[in-house]
Amino acid sequence: MTRLVLASASASRAKLLENAGVAFTVQPANIDEDAVKTSGLDGRAVAEKLAELKAMAVPGALVLGADQVLVCDGRIMSKAATLAEAARQLRALRDKRHTLISAVVLAVDGMPVWRHVEESSLWMRDFSDAFLHSYLQSVGPEILGGVGCYRYEGAGAQLFSRVEGDYFSILGLPLLALLAALRDHGVIAA
After folding, report:
1. How does pLDDT run across 123-181, given as a tens digit for each residue?
2. Which of 4, 29, 86, 188 has the fewest CB within 10 Å, making it most exposed?
3. Which residue, 56, 68, 23, 36, is CA-closest to 182?
């Protein structure tokens, strides 16, 4: 079996791979994400470029780079650094549709060999400020680790009125497409 390296510090991505029975090691890539996000590229291109840079930045037999970008009203939103920022971001998303773009790239010795991008549309409901306050108190700082400031797999599901897209991609990793690629590259059994 080929050795897989996950070039991401995302606990969610690692958990998805682990739950799917994929053996891997973690070696987060150190790249300048802000330079890519402010380069003028659209959300899809930003997600794909970030995933590619991560995959290419880490040496290894087969490296998985992944990233997710949230676009609302034509603007790319980044992770919040504080719960106060999370509250502002969730208010900005309230009663609106946004797009989550999840990109993955596999690279061998710094050269991309496979890539995949998934887009999901999510409609946040018009929740009250009281609900927002209660939600933030219940989830705490753990939501700061993901773009959008919600954990869709948990209490964050209550923020939404409608969702279109792949569940795993919303969590940050287009898992089914990735598993097919990992079978093709000898990481998991075919």
Report:
1. 999 999 999 999 999 999 989 988 999 889 999 999 999 999 999 999 999 999 999 99
2. 188
3. 23
- pLDDT of 48 above 90: yes
Q: Which residues are CB-neighbours of 115 under 8 A, at least 6 positions away?
A: 48, 51, 52, 103, 104, 105, 106
Residue 2 pLDDT: 77
Encoded amino acid at 25, one letter? T
Catalytic-role residue among 34, 42, 67, 184? 67
- For β-strands 4-6 and 62-72, DSSP reports them as parallel
pLDDT in tens, 59-112: 878 999 999 999 999 999 989 999 999 999 999 999 999 999 999 999 999 999
Which domains are present in the chain? 4-184 (3.90.950.10)
Q: Is-catalytic flag, 73?
A: no
The token pair at 104 is 């993955």
